[in-house]
């Protein structure tokens, strides 16, 4: 699969996981997905930022807990923007919170950390040298991101104001975030992609999907609003078994959902993610849509 070289504004472009013990996490994810790992921090640094790669292309990263942040392992979603500073103003105007003001990450780019009005945390990335995930939508690489929320209707005007996102309602009532024009961008890079998407049974606007909307139900009272991360895998059952062997836990599944077979997994330090195998014959199943579309 051809490598990506950048994204357009409003598209999730990168993920990393903050970990109390990043070296142990590197061992887990390297063993699970076969990532090649390299610490991007200078020798002797007290903090780590391990870049995970497939065939030399960046896929995700594993970092130390940022100074002052709670010692909790979690996955972080980054959305590509032209200006982190302008996006901070949009977040404030739309009722969100700026948790970390825009700052430069050496010569890699500029970022900021925000929370939507319900408290779901996300990051933005204004690229310089680092161009986001280079390898996507294949085994061990980023496949999808999703907003888990108790109030989708309140989230819609916020993300529309910040990123220009609209929504698509699928058969069965599931909703997805869309970015108008994103499908045209993808079609230029991969001629015929729009037809390929429709041939597997997806609606025409599905090619504009950038993320999922996953309602948090009443039977999950302790789950806060959050952004989830899904990795593509060749075998969801096999990955679930391997995760347990490496010290992780399977929180749900593997189970069949629309277009996929997937599992919800917690790594040994507690960061949760989803592993998803594309199964086109599952397109008519009812259930969560998360990870049914591509990341890029």
Number of individual domains: 2
Q: Spatial order of the strands in the main sheet?
A: 2-3-4-1-5-8-7-6
As a whole number of angstroms, the C-alpha radius of gyration is 18 Å
The helix/strand class is: alpha+beta
Per the CATH scheme, the topology name of the largest domain is 2,3-Dihydroxybiphenyl 1,2-Dioxygenase, domain 1
- Shape label: globular
Q: Can you say what the CATH homologous superfamily of the largest domain is? A: 2,3-Dihydroxybiphenyl 1,2-Dioxygenase, domain 1
Low-confidence stretches: 287-296
Helical percent range? 10-25%
Distance between the termini: 12 Å
One letter per element, helices H and strands E, the order comes to EHEEEEHEEEEHEEHHEEHEEE
The CATH class of the largest domain, by name, is Alpha Beta
CATH architecture of the largest domain: Roll
Give the biggest sheet: 8 strands, mixed
The number of strands is: 16
Strand proportion: 35-45%
What average pLDDT do the residues reach?
A: 90
SSE topology:
Layout: E1 12-19, H1 22-33, E2 36-39, E3 49-54, E4 57-64, E5 74-80, H2 84-93, E6 97-105, E7 109-115, E8 121-127, E9 142-149, H3 152-163, E10 166-169, E11 175-178, H4 182-189, H5 193-199, E12 209-215, E13 226-232, H6 236-245, E14 249-257, E15 260-266, E16 272-278
Parallel strand pairs: 1-4, 5-8, 9-12, 13-16
Antiparallel strand pairs: 1-5, 2-3, 3-4, 6-7, 7-8, 9-13, 10-11, 11-12, 14-15, 15-16
Written description of the protein model:
This protein is an alpha+beta fold and 296 residues long. It folds into 2 domains: 12-127, 2,3-Dihydroxybiphenyl 1,2-Dioxygenase, domain 1 (Roll); 142-282, Roll (2,3-Dihydroxybiphenyl 1,2-Dioxygenase, domain 1), CATH 3.10.180.10. It has 6 helices and 16 strands. It has helices at residues 22-33, 84-93, 152-163, 182-189, 193-199, 236-245, and strands at residues 12-19, 36-39, 49-54, 57-64, 74-80, 97-105, 109-115, 121-127, 142-149, 166-169, 175-178, 209-215, 226-232, 249-257, 260-266, 272-278. The strands form 2 sheets. Strands 2-3-4-1-5-8-7-6 form an 8-stranded mixed β-sheet, with helices on one face. Strand 7 (109-115) and strand 8 form a beta hairpin. The two termini are 12 Å apart.
